[in-house]
Fold this protein.
Amino acid sequence: MAEELEQVSEDLVGQAKADRATKRNVFGRTALFFKQVAAELKKVTKPTRSELINYTGVVLAFVVVVMAIIALLDWIFYQGVVFVFAPTA
């Protein structure tokens, strides 16, 4: 119930902001955009050091796995091209 009310109130606020934005000139809309960006950036939380190290490890592991897959596919395609186009002795 509370979630529905919260969603409805957010929709009403968003609709009111949209109505006001349509009545503003280009400078007013630009200023509103930057105010909303600043408000959203205040909601962002920074990761802790351990979270950052964990996320970095996950990304590096993923990059290594994808790099290995691409290298394997490259080698397979190379062998196929050599097999098809190499002159026979």
The helical segments are 2-23, 26-42, 49-85. DSSP finds three helices and no strands in the chain.
